[in-house]
Amino acid sequence: MGRLLFFSFVSIFSFLATFSEVVITQHHVTAFPLSTDSRWIVDENGQRVKLACVNWVSHLEVMVAEGLSKQPMDAISKRILSMGFNCVRLTWPVFLVTNDTLGSLTARQSFQIHGLLESISGIQANNPSIIDLSLLDVYQAVVSSLGDNNVMVILDNHISKPGWCCSNSDGNGFFGDQYFDPDVWITGLTRMASMFKGVPNVVGMSLRNELRGPKQNVNDWYRYMQKGAEAVHSANPDVIVILSGLNYDKDLSFLRNRPGCFLGVAAELDFDWALWTLVGSYYLRQGVVGMNEYYGVLDSNWREARNPTFLQQISALQSPFRGPGLSEANPHKVIFHPSTGLCVLRKSMLEPLRLGPCTKSEAWNYTPQKILSVKGTYFCLQTDDLAKPAKLGIICTDSNSKWETISDSKMHLSSKASNGTPVCLDVDSNNTIVANTCKCLSKDNTCDPQNQWFKLVNSTRSSTMK
Ligand SMILES: *[C@@H]1O[C@H](CO)[C@@H](O)[C@H](O)[C@H]1NC(C)=O
Ligand SMILES: *[C@@H]1O[C@H](CO)[C@@H](O)[C@H](O)[C@H]1NC(C)=O
Ligand SMILES: *[C@@H]1O[C@H](CO)[C@@H](O)[C@H](O)[C@H]1NC(C)=O
């Protein structure tokens, strides 16, 4: 459970940017500057850029991006790209840039202060060039390695005092807390923005992670967030400014019980996001040396993906379904299956419908009569008998061709079998689309409905259809 916990929301309320470089992402060439077009982030050609980020932690006591004792930074950057991310949310603590004593420590000194001698030898083996650089230079080296690999970076001010985040009483939660002096914060943001002015792959800055705690209030939020955004833009007009909401950015706790739900919503709204977290293990976290990160995308050696199934689940969310630059000529739906990250498609006319990569999805129409038809054809989705594969038919007026979204989640797609029995779309062990008895419609907490959850997602992705 709790895949949702892997996600830290990047709530993007405003973003402005100007840039004049080019980054090649997996999918297409992104021409900077990035800017906004209503809710979308677009590049200079007006093409949508979907930020599919992973968080890389660099705000703990040592203030060195995690994992550099395990793998060369270039290998980590390449691994990030190969896992389908186009962006890193790289965290930093305010004091790294506002306290010269801290910022000018070398990586070696910082590890020594915390007694992390093993990490020093790890860094000497994997990233010898950074061991005697200052902490600020190390941070810049990481950004530049990501840039060399065409990974975009969002500089995320995660906390003031270096250390694990976040609780309501850690003194870092809201303006006026023990370590959260608004003026020092503004100074920090300004220095960071200036430092990365003209660095093309630094596309955004998030002003502060997860505002929270007893002092939080809307007036101060407006007052200081505006100040922060202005400070960033006067130092560096090229970056998108990303703001955090109150209450740890947003109260999404209700989603925790329904992580499948979550991936469905993420696909439906097609929002930009950053996954918590890249980190496989930490040099030092909460007093524990080498602490394993169970939410890490990478394993504790920073070598392999911890959970390839999960990467498949999110892969459909790593590129845009719609938005500026994607053809508007072909609006359609895809039938997304959140718990696998796959979509409904047909391999050939002769084989039953099955789940497959969303890039190969059929383009569906969902009509006011609740018929799901394959665009440009007469075929519509139909049930046959209970527990039999769903099929495509051409007589689309009977009740076995009508699909309602039912249950509290609105993620069950329900129709009637040819004998009139209510059924729901389901997936068998071979990923074939079948019609089964609807599961979990009553309030039974032990029942897991995820296999029967589908989401009709708006898309204008070009269809690979025949
Ligand atoms: C800077 O950091 C050092 C080391 O943690 C600390 O002793 C010092 O008080 C800090 N200086 C300021 C101005 O906060
Ligand atoms: C899955 O495919 C295998 C091999 O084709 C077959 O033997 C098995 O019965 C199928 N399972 C289901 C649930 O249809
Ligand atoms: C999907 O498209 C339909 C029809 O254009 C529109 O009414 C609906 O609001 C869209 N849904 C989302 C989540 O944007």
Automatic annotation (TrEMBL):
Q: Quote the SUPFAM superfamilies the UniProt record gives.
A: (Trans)glycosidases (SSF51445), Ricin B-like lectins (SSF50370)
State a single Pfam family of this protein.
Cellulase
Look up keyword Transit peptide and say if it applies: no
Task: List, for all copies, the residue spans of the domain called Glycoside hydrolase family.
Answer: 43-254
Task: Name the source's superkingdom.
Answer: Eukaryota
Signal sequence bounds: 1-20
- What are the protein's UniProt keywords? Glycosidase, Hydrolase, Signal
| InterPro entries named in the record | GH (IPR017853), Glyco_hydro_5 (IPR001547), Ricin_B-like_lectins (IPR035992)
Please name the PANTHER family in this protein's record.
CELLULASE FAMILY PROTEIN (AFU_ORTHOLOGUE AFUA_5G14560) (PTHR31263), OS04G0481200 PROTEIN (PTHR31263:SF44)
Write out the similarity annotation: Belongs to the glycosyl hydrolase 5 (cellulase A) family.
Q: What's the protein here called? A: Glycoside hydrolase family 5 domain-containing protein
Q: Give the species.
A: Salix suchowensis
Q: What is the lineage of its organism?
A: Eukaryota, Viridiplantae, Streptophyta, Embryophyta, Tracheophyta
